[in-house]
Amino acid sequence: MAGTTEDRRDGERTAAGPGGGSGADDAAGEDGLAGLEAGLDALDTRTTTRQPLGRLLREKVLPPVLAVVLVLGLWQLAFELHLKPDYQLPSPKMVWDALAEEWYKGTILGVVWQSVSRGALGFLVALVVGTPLGLLVARVKPVRAAIGPILSGLQSLPSVAWVPAAIIWFGLTDATIYTVVLLGAVPSIANGLVAGVDRIDPLHLRAGKVIGATGLRGLWHVLLPAALPGYIAGLKQGWAFSWRSLMAAELIATSPELGSGLGQLLETGRSYQDMPLVLGAILLILMVGIAIELLIFAPVERRVLRQRGLLR
Amino acid sequence: MTTAALAEQHARQSHPAPSSLPEPGYAARLAHVSKSFGPQQILDDIGLDVAPGEFVTLLGASGCGKSTLLNLVAGLDRPSAGEIDVPGGRPALMFQEHALFPWLTAGRNIELALKLRGLPKSERREEAERLLGLVRLRGAHRKRVHELSGGMRQRVALARALAQDSRLLLMDEPFAALDAITRDVLHEELTRIWAETKVSVLFVTHNVREAVRLAQRVVLLSSRPGRIAREWEVGFPQPRRIEDTDVAGLSVEITEQLRGEIRRHGRHD
């Protein structure tokens, strides 16, 4: 990192000062002050360094891999012991084969994409709706008093409860699915932003006012960036809620016009009593969730926290 | 400072106000200012002028309303009665905590203040570098706030305050949370920067020696409610040191008076 070398150079220069300089330190008060200051800066500066790759692999990658291997081992053991008949408890190999079969049929990517694209679109709409809603609740007292509690309450309402209502309203259409996804994700995103705004250091808001960040400029330059960590946590949860709501909706609202997503794949597996396919679909749903977390949210969150020195 | 430099300084200062209006003879004027929060009166009939280029410290024990007073002058709050006039526009304000934005680098914090002041984008980078140089942090532009020491953060905060190009700088115990050596160094820096920029400073502190070390005039506030108890002109030339005997001598006198003010409350209660 550039910062580290710079600090080191600063430090060396200060260390060399009193010995190398021929008493110039005392002569000019100005130079003495600058040198003293450079010394204080060098002594007090903290630098953040990234972990070496080897240690990162050992501490962050190895443990989850071991955990997965352990779970697979226990699963295989349970299968070998015939705790349940094969059609109820297939082996990991059988689930793998079921997925491989779907893969060779050439439909699996389409199925995953159907769900992921729906989830992503639903999430983006929820973002567009939830963000201004969250800002209003956070900053306008009457709005907060009126709908704040309802918004938190909605967060604990399982969005699958909306499926029957949505089907009555919209029939077996995409509108039904998106309605359920939005009702699941919007409260999370709005509440995340509210929590983020509530946790802003009031000093930052005052400092913003003092340097002239008022009104919309205050919103853009101070309020939103200050609320960002809470907002991102809300987005993460909003995505999780989108994804679950989507699976619930797809599982219940199945019709040929709705195409075939992961929820429908589950339902197909259930209707054929095909346990390997059901478990395979569950694994796919889980893996999509993990992939989105690892590829999108985790890097963004780490970046934001690292910038602010909130991450070691 | 050379005469040429002084003339240039003068030219730069009179530049933003080309109107033919006569310059008021003060950087801030407080007339009969009172402030109450509910039934409790915090400030009572404060009258205070800060001359252009003057360095004034406001000194008082806890509960004297020093910070409230600064908030009023900064326009963050309104007085319950009385008038406050700050002819130079919105004053700059430095807090006890650095109050830098952790989502921006040191340089970007300064550039944001420049942007909000209306400086065009092309000039911001260079001006931020100049201000960082002024607080002797050239090269720290890309540092994150959490990578800086307490003293460096306060210097960046000072640079950000100066970036507002206000003619009045308000300081609310800005060095109270620093260790003694760092505070000492920042006193020297502030004195130097004040002399270079000729900005007017209203500096709040509860540290008597700090007040005498820095100011041309020390104003002592009584507590509950805050009233102006007494003022001292500090005649010793800068640069001073906090351990100078004349600084110490005047500090003893002021401390006696301050203790008297505090004792008065013991008798009342």
Shape of chain A: flat
CATH superfamily of the largest domain in chain A: MetI-like
Beta fraction of chain B:
15-25%
Provide the CATH topology of the largest domain in chain B.
Rossmann fold
DSSP, total strands of chain B: 9
The main pleated sheet of chain B reads as: 6 strands, mixed
- Under CATH at level 1, the class of the largest domain in chain B stands as Alpha Beta
Sheet with the most strands: spatial strand order of chain B: 5-6-7-3-8-9
Order of helices and strands of chain A: HHHHHHHHHHHHH
Description:
Chain A is built from 13 helices and no strands. Chain A is mainly alpha-helical and 312 residues long. Chain A folds into 2 domains: 57-82 and 90-106; 108-307, Orthogonal Bundle (MetI-like fold), CATH 1.10.3720. In chain A, helix 5 (92-105) packs across helix 13 (275-307), helix 7 packs across helix 9 (174-198) and helix 10 (202-210) crosses helix 11 (215-252). The two termini of chain A are 16 Å apart. The model of chain A is unreliable at 1-28 (pLDDT under 50). Chain B folds into 2 domains: 36-91 and 167-269, P-loop containing nucleotide triphosphate hydrolases (Rossmann fold), CATH 3.40.50.300; 98-165, no CATH class. With 269 residues, chain B is an alpha/beta fold. A 6-stranded mixed beta sheet of chain B has the order 5-6-7-3-8-9, sandwiched between helices. In chain B, strands 2-1-4 form a 3-stranded antiparallel beta sheet, covered by helices on one side. The longest helix of chain B is centred in the last third of the chain and has 24 residues, at 245-268. Chain B starts with a helix and ends with a helix. At the A-B interface, helix 1, helix 3, helix 10 and helix 11 of A face helix 3, helix 5 and helix 6 of B. Chain B: It holds the Pfam family ABC_tran. Chain B: This is ABC transporter ATP-binding protein. Chain B: GO terms for molecular function: ATP binding; ATP hydrolysis activity.
